[in-house]
Specification:
The chain is an all-alpha fold. About 75% of the residues lie in helices and about 0% in strands.
């Protein structure tokens, strides 16, 4: 009995080497226990809210340990401040002060954990000191729930949403476990009414959620994790491979990061939908984009809309002249780059996207005269994807120097003569890459029809599809469960 209790305790305790992932067996074992209890409490609003908040906090504990206390503390302070500023008779200065306190607290915590060593390292480089990095562990998903916290406080201040009547409602919104550690970023005006509505998921929504979960598992656990094995070889040894092999690694990572992140988003949206909650779409075939503006309307939509509404528009948007519009675009993407990571390579990545957006806006009159023919579309797509893929190198490489080494390696010893040997050695890798390309080439109506067919299909067909996907995961998995790329943000 003591051994059984010991094993249960280990199962329920936080393991830094194995954080809770949607692609892990631990999560699905817990979720299978969670759903029946959730279903029993679904008609009892407050019991359901308490249960989901408790499970969400436990989920975050399994993902990030005792940083769950920081999440709880942040939610308590923000909820209290939202009520203080909304009290009748409060002056505008007082309300602004409440917003300032909340922003300083939320962004200050984020800055400490994520950027302290970055700023200290740069100060040390300027003064020539002997800098020893602080021993900081970045809480999982802190950037995501911080942005949710910031948007909530600002929306309450501007009167877009009313403060939640209870702390539990706000804690439910901030800690909702499907979106907690890697998004999509949830907006209060979209999500809070769903809590109060307490709506049951329909049969179609449950099967749609299951479809999204299966699709997410295919993207993440089958495609992304497998093609990552080759991509890692290229980026772990920059300059150590031929130009052709390096180019394949760059294209491979371009596909990997899409499948990894969109796969997580699909699973998050699917789990939420089975529970009766709708999360906003986060990806819309971004590699179909023919310019960077279109790319950012399709990639990480919850982040790009957040940056637009809470940074770009407050900076002036496009309301203060052409030059100011370009500056605002650049500044917004610079902040977006820094949000992704505390390193100059991320700053450069954001800056180049900002510059690309400005160049596209400036070129619109000239581009309009070229027409909308297939050659023009093909060339626009090729230029856009080349820029996106090369900038992903700075996202993946371990350092600024490694990024340039990888890019320069493409032009060294590049020969198409490598193709036969590469195809022979990396056949499955190429097949999975082709799957992603074909998926993007198929029209949207194909995927809508596939979803409709899955929803209508007999339960035996759904079970068979699920078993096949699980078997493929077991066949292709690496030795350990690979963390989602965006967990680090």
């Amino acid at each position: 009995m003591s051994e059984i209790l010991h094993n249960i305790g280990r199962f329920l305790s936080y393991d830094p080497s194995a954080p809770m992932l949607f692609s892990s067996g631990t999560f699905w074992a817990l979720f299978l226990v969670f759903m029946p209890l959730y279903g029993l409490l679904r008609r009892r609003l407050w019991q359901m809210v308490v249960f989901v908040v408790a499970f969400s906090f436990f989920f975050y504990y399994k993902s990030s340990g005792w940083f769950v206390l920081m999440l709880a503390g942040t939610s308590l302070v923000d909820w209290w401040l939202s009520h203080l500023m909304s009290h009748p008779g409060r002056s505008r200065a007082f309300r602004r002060g409440c917003v300032a306190v909340s922003l300083i607290l939320s962004l200050g915590i984020l800055a400490y954990f994520k950027y302290a060593n970055f700023f200290l390292w740069n100060i040390n480089a300027m003064v020539g000191g002997n800098f020893q990095p602080l021993e900081l562990v970045l809480p999982v998903g802190i950037s995501f729930y911080t942005f949710q916290s910031v948007s909530y406080i600002i929306d309450v201040y501007k009167g877009r949403v009313a403060p939640t009547a209870t702390w539990l409602e706000y804690a439910f919104f901030l800690s909702f476990f499907p979106a907690l550690v890697a998004g999509p970023i949830v907006r209060a005006d979209y999500f809070l009414p769903q809590i109060r509505e307490n709506r049951h998921a329909t049969r179609t929504e449950v099967y749609t959620g299951l479809w999204l979960i299966i699709l997410g598992v295919v993207k993440k656990a089958i495609i992304a994790d497998y093609i990552a094995q080759y991509n890692d070889l290229i980026f772990q040894t920059p300059g150590g491979y031929s130009g052709f092999e390096t180019l394949m690694g760059i294209i491979g990572y371009t596909m990997q990061i899409y499948c990894d992140f969109s796969g997580y988003s699909d699973m998050a949206i699917g789990v939420a939908l089975i529970m009766g909650f709708k999360l906003a779409k986060n990806f819309n075939f971004p590699y179909k984009a023919q310019n960077l503006t279109d790319f950012w309307r399709r990639w990480h939509i919850s982040l790009s809309t957040w940056l637009r509404d809470y940074i770009y528009i407050p900076l002036g948007g496009n309301r203060k002249g052409t030059a100011r519009t370009y500056v605002n675009n650049f500044a917004t993407m610079l902040i977006g780059g820094l949000w992704h990571g505390a390193a100059w390579k991320f700053v450069f990545w954001g800056a180049m996207h900002g510059a690309g957006l400005a160049v596209h806006k400036a070129s619109k009159p000239w581009l309009g005269r070229l027409g909308d023919s297939w050659p023009v579309k093909a060339l626009s797509w090729f230029i856009t994807m080349t820029v996106v893929a090369l900038l992903w190198v700075f996202f993946r490489a371990d350092s600024w120097a490694d990024s340039w080494t990888v890019i320069s390696s493409v032009f060294r010893d590049f020969s198409l003569a490598y193709i036969p040997a590469f195809a022979s050695a990396r056949t499955l890798w190429l097949i999975l890459m082709l799957v992603i390309v074909v998926a993007h080439c198929l029209p949207t109506r194909f995927w809508d029809s596939a979803l409709a067919w899955f929803v209508r299909s007999p339960w035996l067909v759904k079970l068979l599809i699920f078993i096949v996907v699980v078997q493929l995961v077991l066949e292709l998995r690496s030795e350990s469960v690979t963390p989602f790329i965006y967990f680090q943000f």
